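Morning, I've got a small favour to ask if you have a moment. You're getting the sequence in one-letter code plus the fold written as C-alpha cells. Thanks so much in advance, here it is:

===
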Amino acid sequence: MEVPEGVKEKGKEGWYWKLTKALYGLKQAGCQWKKKLDKIMGKLDLKKSQADNCLYIRHEDGVVTLLILAYVDDMAVAGKNLEHVQKFKKDVAKHVEITDLGELHYILGIQVKHDRTACTISLNQTTYIHNVLECFGMENLNPVSTPLNTKGRLSAAQSPQTKEEAKLT
C-alpha cells in the first residue's frame, strides 16, 4: 500500500508498505476476517454448519448446546443454558475485542421478540419494511391483501419422495 500522507520520510519517496494483516475497508478484509473467525470457532470446539457457512454449532454428547450465527462482525448467540452463552462470550473475548449488547432484539433488519413464559421466539421485519417503503417514498400507500388460499394445508406427502423428484423442484 502507498505510504499515507504525513508519514512519508525524506529519501523514501516512492516506497510502499507491505501489509501483514488486512485493514478494515480493504477488499480482502472480509475474507481475512472470516478465516480468522473460522479458526477461533474451531479452537472453541464449534463446527461450521453444512447448511449455512455462517452458522457454528457446538455439540456435547450428541446434543446441540450452542448456536452462533455470524454476519461479518455481528453475532447472535443461542445456548441451551445461560452458562454456555456466558462461557462462549468470555472465550471469544480472549481472541478478539467484543461488545456485548445483551439480549438480541434486532439483527440484519429482523426484530426478535422473546416470550419466555410461552417459550417462543418470533421474528418480524416490520421496521425494515417501513424503512424500505420510506426510502422509496411509498410509506403512505394503502395496503391490499395478497390473494392466497388460506384454507390450504401442507403435508409431508407433498414433499419429494425420491431423489429424482427432488431434482425437479
Summary: Residues 29-43 form the longest helix (15 residues).
